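User: Show me an example of a complex going from sequences to structure tokens.

Assistant: Sure. Here are the input components:
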Amino acid sequence: MLINCDLGEGFGAWKMGQDEQLMPYVDQANIACGFHAGDPVVMQRAVHHAKLNHVSIGAHPAYPDLQGFGRRSMRLSHSELIALLHYQIGALEGVAQSLGASVDYVKPHGALYNDMMADTDLLDIVMQGVADYHRPLSLMIQATPNWQTHQHMADKHRLTLLFEAFADRRYLDNGQLQPRAQPGAVLDAKQCIQQARQLIKEGKVTTVSGHNLSVKADTLCVHGDGEEALSIAAQLRSLIDELAS
Amino acid sequence: MLINCDLGEGFGAWKMGQDEQLMPYVDQANIACGFHAGDPVVMQRAVHHAKLNHVSIGAHPAYPDLQGFGRRSMRLSHSELIALLHYQIGALEGVAQSLGASVDYVKPHGALYNDMMADTDLLDIVMQGVADYHRPLSLMIQATPNWQTHQHMADKHRLTLLFEAFADRRYLDNGQLQPRAQPGAVLDAKQCIQQARQLIKEGKVTTVSGHNLSVKADTLCVHGDGEEALSIAAQLRSLIDELAS
Amino acid sequence: MLINCDLGEGFGAWKMGQDEQLMPYVDQANIACGFHAGDPVVMQRAVHHAKLNHVSIGAHPAYPDLQGFGRRSMRLSHSELIALLHYQIGALEGVAQSLGASVDYVKPHGALYNDMMADTDLLDIVMQGVADYHRPLSLMIQATPNWQTHQHMADKHRLTLLFEAFADRRYLDNGQLQPRAQPGAVLDAKQCIQQARQLIKEGKVTTVSGHNLSVKADTLCVHGDGEEALSIAAQLRSLIDELAS
Amino acid sequence: MLINCDLGEGFGAWKMGQDEQLMPYVDQANIACGFHAGDPVVMQRAVHHAKLNHVSIGAHPAYPDLQGFGRRSMRLSHSELIALLHYQIGALEGVAQSLGASVDYVKPHGALYNDMMADTDLLDIVMQGVADYHRPLSLMIQATPNWQTHQHMADKHRLTLLFEAFADRRYLDNGQLQPRAQPGAVLDAKQCIQQARQLIKEGKVTTVSGHNLSVKADTLCVHGDGEEALSIAAQLRSLIDELAS
């Protein structure tokens, strides 16, 4: 089990997250590509720290919406969405490869991520966009009960998937995350470590109604903001290292 | 002698220039990378037409200034400028290579171009930025009486230069272009062809004061906007093909 | 019956529409406020020409989406939408009043317009936003078979409505416009004048299925782009002046 | 003596400064207008807190440069600069007046502020821009040894000036601030209070070389970021209240 985290989400004079402190605990850095966050300097810095810490680099492309931090859904044509993916992945590659690092995978951000998980047609377009990129890259998506459908779709595109689960979010019985606005949707540090342990050891999560749901994940997403972010990341790192040894 | 042209300078709903009509006449397309013009869809379309017409593709990076079309000078730190070049070149590569095309060279746009031609230190940073890019790319700069200095600088960076001359602009005795605002600074179609012929056959231009100035250029820049743009491009194409045969 | 037109939709170096030529034919100029188009200079120029031609000025606020020209739907919170309206209306007022002109009404643009016409809750928020503005302004919305509901809603906000009809678009039986993508949705010049005559004289349009639909409008929207825009505007002007005399 | 502070400098998901905590200590809030920081929601919140704390509201317009936080100099035409001022002031007024608050003054931000203080012609354009605004507003500029020249210029425009001094920056003998990059340029909390006391009681500052320089100021600028910002603001507030009683 790996740990992935959204990083490089500052912009210009504005900071976000604690990139440098988090890097030692994570395996995969999802780096913003300038459309929801991340200007070239911020991206360069994030790549630099990822490289220093031997962290795998993923492009974290988004809808073009700086003001809304890519959290607002937008309807784009298929060709526009693919152009937008290639632009953002390429931009990060331009920065990363010139620093001697490389981009390994793509994880769509925010509303684009939610939209593709809710709409199979959109997910297929995103898959096509990543598969059509000139270098082979993996695509990181959410591990859901539909994972086999998603795997079949990816196979058609000859695309490698990385499935991620959320250690710090309560799951619904259908495998979706409980909406953030609802009480209890975001787990505290202790619950989070517990859920992570269950995910790693059993490949399961206990849902909001108490059912055990099978969730097969390659990587756990941790969040870089919030007061406990660093502490949670450190505990997850220890947990994973302990279970692996 | 080649012909280069700034293309792909629309943005969203806004058009600029006549990309499709101009492509058949040019050898090199300087394609905007999103900072002064050109969104991912516009870039994809420009690359597509360049590829159809076997036109060499250059990245046309700019200061981040959509509202000012990259024509406003901006002081950036060295590392910021380099990050910004890698981002924009990479973004175009992401789009281009995914369409089976490749980026061959870099030509800075607008104020960035003017600033680097006026400031040797800045030119050196731009050279470093292009040289540090992970793939070898040429840099297109203006052919001036200082071309040997520029060549030495480029040699240190192991960078290939492409020198360009302007067929449609009046030259000053010092080899700079007469400022656009001055009367006579922009040549009409007839004068333009005449100056192009002189540049190609003799490697010289007649300056505003009547002197003959040596200008050794690899490529002539034509402008894609203006009513006569297409006609001038067609005439230049004929002239070059005629002189080459 | 008045004529309204979207104007001031250039941005930076990019032009759109034929503002100066259209102004003499229209009564109301919907001027972009910088979020989908229109920078301060473009806005200043549009206001200047509106004032010269004694044209009433309306704010034409949009979702923050320059790249998508405000044509992409975006879900905003209520308070965000209201803040966004006040910002854009205020910005246009700052420019207009300093030139001795004033803003008379608000007409939301593109996706925001479509969204509010399709969603009564959203329309209510827009009404509240305009009603909460510190000066009384009218709100321009589409004249539909639901106009009485809309009028009741506006009355609660003590808001004056301006109802607009479309001379150049085919109507469906339910009073909505036939989607642009469908053949025949956009009328040619001759059909357009015919429909305008029917709207003015009878307060009706003949729908796509041949029914006569009652459409009570205060103003007709003409489009500023397209080759025939000027000619249509001139013919509408003549028609209205002729019918009024 | 009053206290002014730059506030409302967040953007979208990004925070900056500690607006709510600072408001009780300041008399004048310079609120960003969307060009270097501040979206409509951020502006609305800043206005709301200013009003709650009976703080005077100033527009804090900037060059259009979100990525550079308005700290990069840009050459604009005179008419563009004036349009840009009217747009930004108007936008803030739209938000403020709709909340029952009003804008009292204008203080240009960052590079625009520095440029106008270094270039009398530019300062004259800024004065004209503020004077041409449709409502009378004061202009806040730096108190320098040239204050009488500036006062004469303002008189011609019938413009009221507010002179500000910096409590937390070391002055050069010529009345300019020591560049931030130089050691000792930014005063610590203790030095800052000492310099404030000297400015208030004697109208003087002790420069870097030990000279006493006359600086007649109406208001002291405090900075909202930095760890000590709150503590310094609180101490300045106490100092001013104590000296006034």
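The lines above are the inputs; the final block is the predicted structure for all four components together. Chain D has a mean pLDDT of 95.
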